[in-house]
């Protein structure tokens, strides 16, 4: 609990120091041009809306702005932050949402993080990333949003502690963390790489989960995409080093982002939602560009996937116990040799979840199971049961260390407290009725 407290103190002090500047308006660094003060015509809105639908999918607006089972675009999704709960708002064109917003107001909300009336938005809305969106794409998005059905749903109340309920303090946060300008295309790099950077950073906002944050929750750009912890789960390193470690090639990464499935396993937890609501709707050219950017290549050629991992040594007693557990509980679905069963379950041999630095995602899957998930092209995976009640921490340590070593090539370093801490997050979440 120390981290949020330090952050709280830091933000309060920083906030107080900058309050004067805020009220003097000196921190206003808009990237929105005066061109968007001119309203779009009805004809322009009609023409732009179909492209806006694609932008909305690539930027994953729906997933956050629609509560599960709730009215489309009417908001209500809760986000746990170290400072309390924030809810995504209604962005349908009703009076409770963005009904009556001007084109310019929409641009400022998306790229500056400021809603009409100078109301600062919380960075749970990823405007830090959307700041890089092009004017044309934001116009298209505006056209698409204003042509959705209006939903008369009131916004949920946030549960933020003082001083985080004071929106003006966000001007200080923006001063510290919001880039003053937007990245221009890099003339030294190919069009493919530049498009990939735009799709990954501005639209896909991968860094919002995969880049670590500092004490005041700003993204540490010096460690961009090197991995971070999101709601107790590791969003792994997706730099070229991290992707290669998980066994991805550019081609298999593009396949994974487009379908949620590849030889490296299936998309799970928050990553399933990213694929389901967003990246699977991207066209092949954008998926390829994203893969080129993430592997830092100007062009992609046919290449062999990285070599399968070399098994790491494990103690004989661990192997004996783990093999028994695996044969009894897992082999029926994942195959006796970890080879998987087509259309039923994914292979374990070479699975990315066995090769990441942290085993938390793997342990979470074993404890809590995974829901049945449907993937594009009619592919479907059955549900996986959770084994929290069948396996104690010691048994899961053995199983995890053995599987990671045997099929992921990772040194067996998982300890009982690693499993216990994942188990603890499950209990509190279930107790909270989630
Ligand atoms: C990761 C979740 C997330 C994603 C993705 C996201 N939003 Fe948001 N958005 C939020 C949250 C949370 C708020 C409320 C912030 C606040 O209350 O300060 C918000 C607020 C807004 C607002 C301000 C509405 C108001 O009246 O306060 C607009 C407009 C908006 N989002 C549009 C979008 C669009 C368009 C996209 C896609 C390009 C998008 N959002 C993607 C979480 C998200
Ligand atoms: C909402 C947070 C979030 C966003 C946004 C996000 N990811 Fe992830 N990602 C995760 C988490 C969490 C995991 C680990 C999943 C697990 O362990 O079950 C993950 C896993 C992955 C993996 C490893 C494969 C796997 O399933 O373990 C890749 C590759 C990946 N993400 C790429 C991306 C790319 C590219 C983007 C941007 C288009 C992106 N992610 C956006 C949270 C996110
Ligand atoms: C009833 C069948 C079933 C059993 C039994 C089962 N699994 Fe699974 N498992 C699945 C399915 C299906 C998936 C893919 C889920 C999805 O993507 O929707 C999966 C996914 C996983 C994943 C995530 C892999 C990835 O690609 O992200 C891990 C890790 C895992 N299983 C480990 C185990 C272990 C360890 C056991 C034994 C303790 C086990 N499973 C038992 C069906 C099963």
UniProtKB/TrEMBL annotation:
Key words, A-Z: Heme, Iron, Metal-binding
Family annotation (InterPro entries): Cyt_c-like_dom, Cyt_c-like_dom_sf, Cytochrome_c-type_DH, Membr-bd_ADH_cyt_c
Requisite cofactors: heme c
Residue numbers binding heme c 2: 206, 209-210
SUPFAM superfamilies xref list: Cytochrome c (SSF46626)
The keyword Heme is assigned to this record: yes
Binding-site residues, heme c 3: 330, 333-334
Cytochrome c domain boundaries: 47-149, 317-407
Note describing how the cofactor binds: Binds 3 heme c groups covalently per subunit.
Pfam family, one: Cytochrom_C
Entry's Gene Ontology molecular function annotations: electron transfer activity; heme binding; iron ion binding; oxidoreductase activity, acting on CH-OH group of donors
Positions bound to heme c 1: 61, 64-65
GO CC annotation terms, alphabetical: membrane
Record carries keyword Metal-binding: yes
Matches recorded under PANTHER family: BLL4482 PROTEIN (PTHR35008:SF4), BLL4482 PROTEIN-RELATED (PTHR35008)
Protein name as annotated: Cytochrome c, mono-and diheme variants
